[in-house]
Structure formats: structure tokens, C-alpha cells
Amino acid sequence: MDLALLYDVLDVPEDFGPGHLLFAARRQHYTLPYLVLSALAREGVPMSGAARGELDRARRRAAHYGAVLDRVAAEVPVRPLKGPLLARAYPEDLLRPQGDLDLVTVGEPDLWRVVRLLVADGPRHVGVTVLGSPQRHVVVTLSGPAEDPLLDPELRVEVATAALVGDQGAVPIRAAMPADALASNLLALAEERFQRPFHARDAIDLHQLGRSAVPSTTELVAAAASYHLAPELAELLAYAGDRVPLGSLAPLAGPALAAEADAERARRAAVPASAPPAGGAGAALAAGVPLYGMPLRRTAEQLAARSGWERARVHRFGGDEALLLTPVGDYLLVTGELVGQERYDAALRELDGPGPGDRAGEGS
């Protein structure tokens, strides 16, 4: 990994200079400048105070996420995804771009233990999503201001009971990742395709992963097939292979993976398309489609009163509406971003009515 590779992958002629390289990095992904700045610093390129300040904040950001992971892992069994694991493939003096911290727990009780620890840090926002049926999974996103809120993206930690949530269609939720670190990294990167197109950071990650020996290409192909990600992994390898040397990962982009990708595409095509559930939150819960929690209330007294809760509770009301009562706050479950004032007010009235916070509701 050097500046020459970064110029290549970002499609910037070297004679354009580091300013153009940094500008191209910002256009690709908001965290990619961290890697470029650290590479410039390693090669002794003169840097302004502003550039040095951005790099220093990025290093403190990475250290913050590392400290959060260490603190949480000391008390609750968690597994990180992507960021910290991929960073191990980078040289110590290069900063692997990391926007957030993704953590996975085995089950909801451990998830809420982690969230309680993080809520003590005073996040600005605590978002909750529920999905899956008959087994319900929970995703909690905690975010707060960065060191420089005007210049840097917010700090964000996502805690989930499912490692990979699929495409809400033919690709199912997969709760746990493979034990093998390389397989876990490759599948987590491939899964990103359901959210966005691949970009330069993904190619750089694969280049770094390919600098180590691959224990078994056959096992990696089998993992991609069993996790229903062969098409996405094949696309990722093709994308990266057009931009960077793949090293030991090059043989993975071969006939065996292509055959599994074709088989997976055929399997998906045979899965009947599911119509959106008719009705409100209750129907969506039964169908397992994602429901998002609109925050209603979160107080210190509430946290203390629910210190023994191990699961969120669903409280239905008003026909097909539902509240999600969690150990860290109360939410109105919704399927979209816009909620009318009347609906919001009705949720608050129900929350203030007799019983919602004390009822057992639905478990996971």
C-alpha cells in the first residue's frame, strides 16, 4: 500500500498532486480521506495545519472506537464486524477508513446490556429497528457529535442481534458470521452491496486482505454459497480486480465462485415475490419486514425502572399500531419516515395511559 496505488484506485494522475488525490477521496467516501492523509504523512508529504488536524482527529476517532470496543467486550460477549477486523490488514501507520463501529451479540439480552453501557456515554440519538419473523431481531444505532461537529461525521455505534440482514426478500437474515476472519470480512463487504454500490474503499480493503495467504479457496466459495452471497462476492472481486492487485484472493474469482453465483441467482429468481403487508405495524411485525422506532420518550428514571429488562416489549393499540417499549426508551413502530402529528399524539396518549410500560408484551 503506497501513494501510487491510491492514485491508481482513485483514477488520479500522479502529476496532479496530493490535493487532487484528497479531493477524489472525499468524492468516493467520507472516510477515505483518513487513509489518504495517513499515507501522505507516512511518505513525508508536507501538510498544512488544517490537514494535520484532520488526520489527528481521525486517529483519535479510531482510538475512540477501539476504546469503546475494549470496554464493551470486557463486560459483554460481542463480535465486531468490518472496521476493527479489516484494520488488522493495514500497516500500523496507515489509517483504515472507519465511519462507525458495528457490533453483534448473540441474542437480545446481551444487546441491551451493550446498549445500556453505551447510553451511559450520553448519545444524542438512540435509534431502534426490529425485523424478522418468527424470530425477531433488533438493531440499535447510537450516535453523537464528533470531536469537530462542523467538519467531521458523527460518531456512530450499531449493535445488532443479526450480523447480516439480507435484502428483505430472497436473501434471509443470517444471525452469526463464520468463525474464520477472512471469510467474515469478505462476506461482510459483499453484503454491503444490498445497501450501496461498491466503491474505492472496498477495493483497497480487498487489496490489503489479499496480501495474506488464503487458507482454502474452496472453503471461501462454500461460505459464500451458504451465506447466499456468491453473486455479491463475485461482483466485489471483479470490481476490485479492475482497480487493484488482488494478490492471494485472485484465484477466488474463478469458475467455482461463478457457478455458485449463477446457482444463487437462480434460487433467488425462484423465490416468490412477497407483497408488502397490508395494514400497519402489527401486520409488518408478523411479516418480519423492518420497522423503525420513532423516539417518544427516554428518561433517567425510565432507565432505572427497567434495569432488569432483557428484551423489548411490543404494546399494540388503536387497531394495528404498536409501541416498542425498550430498556432504554419508548418508540412508535413505523414503516416509513413520515408520521402525521395526529398519529404521533395518539402514541403519546397511549404511552401515558394505564399499563403500557408494565405489560409483558411480546418477547423475541
| Strand segment tally | 9
Shape: globular
Helix-strand string: HHHHEHEHEEEHHHHHHEHEEEH
Strand line-up across the major sheet: 1-2-5-4-3-6-9-8-7
Kindly provide the radius of gyration, computed on alpha-carbon positions and rounded to a whole number of angstroms.
Answer: 22 Å
How is this fold's topology laid out?
Layout: H1 3-9, H2 18-28, H3 32-42, H4 49-73, E1 79-81, H5 83-87, E2 101-104, H6 108-119, E3 125-131, E4 137-144, E5 155-160, H7 181-191, H8 200-209, H9 217-226, H10 230-241, H11 255-270, H12 281-287, E6 291-297, H13 300-305, E7 313-317, E8 321-326, E9 329-334, H14 341-352
Parallel strand pairs: 2-5
Antiparallel strand pairs: 1-2, 3-4, 3-6, 4-5, 6-9, 7-8, 8-9
Helix pairs in contact: 2-3, 3-4, 7-10, 8-10, 9-11, 10-11
Summarize the structure.
This protein has 364 residues and is α+β, with helices and mostly antiparallel strands. It has helices at residues 3-9, 18-28, 32-42, 49-73, 83-87, 108-119, 181-191, 200-209, 217-226, 230-241, 255-270, 281-287, 300-305, 341-352, and strands at 79-81, 101-104, 125-131, 137-144, 155-160, 291-297, 313-317, 321-326, 329-334.
